[in-house]
Amino acid sequence: MTSFSAIPLSVLDLATVRAGMTNAEALAQTITTAKAADELGYRRFWVAEHHGMAAVASSAPAVLIGAIAAATTRIRVGSGGVMLPNHSSLVIAEQFGTLVALHGDRIDLGLGRAPGTDGLTARMLRRNVQNETADDFPQQVVELLALFGIVPPLENGVGATVVAVPGAGDAPLMWLLGSSGFSAQLAGIMGLPFVFAHHFAGTAETPRAFELYRERFTPSAVLEKPLAMVSVATVVADDAKEASRLALPHNLWAVRLRQGGRPGAVPTLAEAEAHPWTEGERAFAAERNAQQAVGSREHVRSRVSALVEATGANEVILVPQGPDLESRLRTLTELAA
């Protein structure tokens, strides 16, 4: 099995808003977590774009990334990811070109093709983007590559007549995110780094996405050989029972999300413990914990190593999910030791 100590580790944070917490408090905790990850030696710290969700305050990744990069010194900072169909390629090139101009070679641009929200909110986000949909995602990625000057200008003038300032010559490292075989194959064909969202789409089929990525990989101006990362939800505690207890709030939130509608802020630990869990809900939570990395330090390290062994991922991005800042920081500290 792959040695845990040899695995490069990063952190994915959603600026989670918990019951009774303000957005300002959630964002402050994200910056505190980023500082800790920087000091602990983690490789990257990413935030994810979601909209209209009471539990997620990272709706403006570029703004938050700027704040995090300014508060840290070494760690790479980026998006996990920007939902590209919500934006014009030019705007994203300008935003992330500005971040690179300000912070140098510390910026990652992870791109997703899902809206990260409901249909109505997605239409509001795209109101000035004519008829663009997720189906246009590959073309948007090519436009970004041209705007950053990574590939030659396109026939429609993107990268020549239409330029990004900052942007051209200020390219972040671009990654494609996915939770299916489609994104894995697209990342391979385009010769870009790939991240699989195992933390919410994890099943026994996760390794297949990495196989598809490597099978379709074509060297590019960005990469000569495949570079892949896998995300995993993580809770470290003294033992399995306590870790499962600390995972209850996020599991309850996931149950509510699965049942449809807007699940609200992530519940408190007390609320999650008092919830009248049905047999089906308990089974869902147990299966979710089994697919992720929830348990003692030794179990979590073993689980992460096994996930790397199964997928062949080059890196792992942890999604710490304890019920409070203290428990999440403990998870990061225990795994960095």
From TrEMBL:
The keyword Oxidoreductase applies. The keyword Oxidoreductase applies. Keywords: Monooxygenase, Oxidoreductase. Residues 10-313 form the Luciferase-like domain. GO terms for cellular component: cytosol. One of its GO terms (molecular function) is oxidoreductase activity, acting on paired donors, with incorporation or reduction of molecular oxygen. Pfam families: Bac_luciferase (PF00296). InterPro entries: Bact_Lucif_Oxidored (IPR050766), CmoO-like (IPR019949), Luciferase-like_dom (IPR011251), Luciferase-like_sf (IPR036661). SUPFAM superfamilies: Bacterial luciferase-like. To bacterial alkanal monooxygenase alpha and beta chains. PANTHER family: LUCIFERASE-LIKE MONOOXYGENASE. This is Alkanal monooxygenase. It comes from Marisediminicola antarctica.
